[in-house]
Design goal:
Layout lengths: L2 E8 L3 H12 L4 E4 L16 E2 L10 H20 L3 E2 L3 E5 L5 H14 L5 E4 H7 L7 E5 L3 E3 L1 H14 L3 E3 L4 E7 L2 E6 L2 E10 L5 H7 L8 E10 L8 E4 L11 E4 L5 E4 L3 E2 L11 H5 L6 H16 L8 E12 L21 E3 L30
Parallel strand pairs: 1-2, 1-12, 2-9, 5-14, 12-19
Antiparallel strand pairs: 3-8, 4-8, 5-7, 6-7, 10-11, 11-12, 13-16, 13-17, 13-18, 15-16
Helix pairs in contact: 1-5
The structure holds flavin-adenine dinucleotide.
The site of flavin-adenine dinucleotide has 37 residues, from helix 1 and strand 18.
């Protein structure tokens, strides 16, 4: 392939495919480069699949606005495109009276963000819906749901293709040269010339940035494991513990998949390599060496489960199910949902992202990207 396009997007995860959909709808000629054999096999395929509703971000931030708006748009998109999804709702639980102030602060934050239909509910409400979860009170979020993130990604890519985008698999970006006013890209599928390059390479966004001469980013991979419950559990809602003031991340949570199975996770461990999905070694190292085989594995698992500290734990999750790596820009691990970071052009017409967390997987807003100004296509195919 020898192509000339307005925009080359590096990375076929949910972010790259959403950008491809939005830009192709806006009339740009778009080429999406994905290194793997299939779309959505990176971080996108290893997450909780939760459609968030805007509880946590600081009021007025872009993340808060995008999350609340994206919640409604995502349901609409999934409905219209046949993407598997469900709306079981979420309970953010204060397990004891001491955590009620944190719950009230979260409720106030959510209301300021305009999170849809959130409501503080008493212990009796939680008991009725989730009898196995001890709670002093909870925040009920009926608009929080779940989606199949890989199907969502594919639907966005299909939409982009319908609007003229070219999606190339097994097309790793290998080198970038700036030949003003555009970039020459060397890819595993041949050369590409693009006016702009969008870096949506997830965990590898720092390496892609470095190819373009931007050396200042470093992605630190943090691995999380999920645990399945066995046998099947009675939970019907997503259950999150209320975040203690100053704590990092949202805490280990209980989520459902679209088949109704429950899982608990993710826990978090820093790893050195971005492809390290092996069982966590941190806890194993702290166990006495003389415990052999199964006993050692059992003790290790028990130690890890104790550390999860989730209100639903009494129901005994027992099996490590799958892992995911989360890209974080600092070495200190998962941050609190915090201030916005804005992608901006760097040195030339190159927009970049570098391992950023999204406030939620959201499809493009068709209405805000009408295809009213189609630009002349300058694609050539070899
Ligand atoms: C444990 C966990 C739980 C999460 N839970 C949720 C949740 O419940 N709800 C939610 O909304 N979000 C959640 N997230 C966040 C969400 O999963 C991510 O924000 C999102 O998937 C990131 O997508 P991405 O497209 O940026 O990255 P990726 O999906 O990783 O895509 C990047 C792509 O770039 C490709 N690539 C890399 N280098 C190159 C190259 N040189 N050339 C070409 N292609 C390249 C990779 O192969 C990959 O396919 C969670 C994340 C984690 C880790």
């Amino acid at each position: 392939m020898d192509a000339e396009v307005d925009v080359a997007i590096v990375g076929g995860g949910v972010v790259g495919c959403a950008v491809a959909s939005a830009l192709s709808r806006a009339g740009r000629s778009v080429l999406l480069l994905e290194a793997a054999q299939r779309l959505g096999e990176g971080v996108t395929s290893r997450n909780s699949g939760v459609i968030h509703s805007g509880l946590y971000y600081p009021p007025g931030s872009l993340k808060a606005q995008a999350c609340v708006r994206g919640n409604a748009l995502l349901y609409q998109w999934a409905r219209e495109r046949g993407v598997p999804h469900a709306r079981p709702g979420k309970l953010v639980v204060a397990p004891d009276p001491a955590s009620l102030p944190d719950l009230e602060a979260l409720a106030a934050n959510a209301r300021q963000n305009g999170a849809p239909r959130v409501e503080l509910v008493p212990a009796a409400f939680v008991r009725k819906r989730e009898p196995a979860v001890p709670a002093a009170a909870a925040l009920w979020c009926p608009e929080t749901g779940i989606v199949d993130p890989v199907d969502l990604t594919r639907s966005l890519a299909a939409d982009a293709a319908e609007h003229g985008a070219i999606i190339l698999l097994q097309a790793r970006l290998r080198a970038v040269t700036l030949n003003r006013p555009a970039y020459d890209l060397d890819t595993a599928r041949g050369p590409v010339r693009a006016e702009r390059v969008v870096n949506a390479a997830g965990l590898h966004a720092d390496e892609v940035a470095a190819l373009a001469g931007v050396e200042r980013y470093r992605v630190h991979p943090w691995r999380g494991d999920y645990f399945r419950f066995a046998p099947a559990t009675p939970f019907r809602h997503l259950v999150y513990p209320v975040r203690r003031r100053g704590a990092a991340g949202l805490g280990v949570h209980l989520t459902l998949d679209l088949a109704g199975r429950c899982r608990l996770g993710p826990d978090v461990e820093h790893v050195a390599r971005k492809d390290d999905l092996s069982p966590a070694r941190g806890q194993a190292a702290r166990l006495p060496r003389r415990r052999p085989g199964a006993a050692r594995r059992g003790a290790r698992r028990a130690a890890r489960l104790r550390r999860l500290r989730h209100p639903a734990q009494a129901a005994r999750p027992h099996r490590r199910r799958r892992q995911g790596l989360r890209p974080v820009r600092g070495p200190s691990g998962i941050r609190q949902p915090g201030r916005d970071r804005v992608a901006r052009a760097h040195r030339c017409p190159c927009a970049r992202r570098a391992g950023r967390r999204t406030p939620g997987v959201a499809p493009p807003d068709a209405k805000s990207h009408p295809r009213t100004h189609p630009r002349r296509r300058r694609r050539t195919h070899a």
